[in-house]
Amino acid sequence: MVYIILIFIVFEGALRKWVFVFPVAQKLIIFLRDPLVAAVYIFAISKGRMKASPFVIAPVFGLFGILFIVILQIFTSPNPPVPILIMYALRNYLLYVPLVQVIRDNFESRDVVGSIKIVMIGALISAPLMVLQSWFPPDSPINQGFGADEETMFENLGLAEGLVRGTGLFTSSAGNGLFSTVVFASVLGMLSGRHHLFRQNRKLLSFGMLAAVVIILYCGSRSVLFMVPVVLLGAVVGTAMSGRGLVATKIVLVAAMFAALVAIVMIYIVPERLDAYMVRFTEADYYESSEYQLGTFGRILGTFTNVFALADRVPFFGYGAGYGTNAAVILGYIPLSLSAESDWDRHVYDLGMIGWFAVALFRIWMTGWLGWRCLLAAKLPEGTLAMTLYSAIAVTALSGQLVGQNSINGLGWFAIGLCAAASSKRQVVRSASAKDMHRTYKGLPRLGGAGVAES
Predict the structure, then answer these.
(1) Contact partners, residue 161, CB within 8 Å, separation at least 6
(2) Angstrom distance (rounded) from CA 318 to CA 296
(3) Half-sphere CA count of 35, side-chain side, radius 13 A
(4) Which residues, in sequence order, are CB contacts of 247 under 8 Å at separation 6+?
(5) What is the average pLDDT across 135-142?
(6) What is the DSSP letter of 50?
(7) What global pTM score does this model have?
């Protein structure tokens, strides 16, 4: 059933764009996977397969905390509470968090590989689709869908020079951007791993790597391009920490070969794509240099510091639960000019400074905890995948649009769970101490073997 949730996450955008094109159907598709998530929780609890952890306890406290803030907002916010926005906020903030624990507690190595196979299949479909999308104008059905009006059509953001950002199977470049990064990290992590399940799927992974290159080229996202070297660094660090320096060197050489291949393709085969990227980077650099003192770095830093500027503008308990989400903009409750760009701003809009502090603290803890687990896992030859996945998902876990964007909400939490499973379930002896993990991995049970300790 967890696989079905992932399938819905990957192919949900395609269903909304080209199959269920009526307004009501498009909106229902967004929530179609939610009952499956609830069913997974019920089954896991009834079978004793979801242990108490911060990923289970935090949403329970979060539910009461958000409802308490909503009551306070009735008396302090200039905006009236909107039930549909409150429900949407509760769903985006809380529903998918326990999924991390379910995946971590129950996924074995074959389940991790099975999930990555689903992602690879999505990538193999998305790659040629994105190439086709780049050949057609933004208002063509392959880009905006078969909807009959603005309410049922999806805007495809332009890149530059008349070219569009391919969104593939997704309805937005943001969701497709995270998908592109996860695809690249999954392929790279598995290709550099030593487990037999990895080796059995090398043909699929080889095609997956080609699909990842195409997706990265045609997604038109600067953030994805920035994440590529970060993921490569994660793979190199993971393999080097496992005592396989030669493999780490090979990864660097293979990455250099792919970079050379991409450069040749962009210069001689699709030069218009290279020109568009150059224009896009130049325009973005000009905007960021004029708006932020430190340019691009200032914009990144502003993700974390802008919340303090909002403290003087936003009511202490926020505008209202859900007012920071994209749904509030789409439904007309807040103008686009006032919408939150980052999730940290969004937390202030939704829950005020107190709510922001609680959510930010949880996300900081989660990112640090997951990073520590992946560092421990990297000392085993099968732990490279965990480190590579972490390098792809850490930014999203810390400050990405886990709350604001529907596709990222689903895919982001699933990827965090997959990373947690890769770093602990059947890959790390979870009852071992940090001192034990520094010892040689010789004699430890193989990935998926018997005798792995349970915590």
Answers:
(1) 272, 275, 276, 279
(2) 28
(3) 3
(4) 192, 239
(5) 84
(6) S
(7) 0.87
